[in-house]
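Justification of computing resources. Each target in the renewal requires a structure prediction run like the one illustrated here; the chain below, 138 residues long, is used simply to show the kind of job we budget for.
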Amino acid sequence: MIRGSLEPRTLLQPVQGRGNNLDLAPEHPIPYAMINGAWVHILLCADGSYYVGSTTQDPDVRTGQHNDGTFGGYTSARRPVKLIFQEDFPDIVQAKAFEYQVKRWSRAKKEALIRRDWDVLQALSRRRAGKSRPTQAS
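Resulting structure tokens:
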């Protein structure tokens, strides 16, 4: 399983006024952002497909729930699943936004994210067929 912060925080920026994962609340032995935060996780399913989800629970606990069949849907017919990627966010709104973004990515792009291969991820992020992105009128 891969853990850790995404290096280039260009996908989603931190919320103004919120602490980062290093800020500790005195009464809690774990980072404050994790108490009020959320995670995006990628599960490898038994059929080789990927499931992208978000949670406010510990990703290991959430993975166990998927394997226990607690949730219907995509993973229920593809067990067992294995947690292969997780990333923390300050709140569920940002986690959901990133989850939605990643769900629309190709398999190759998801695998680059899982490996944290920023060069490949950037190359795969370029517009297909060499078309430039539309610009907004100023």
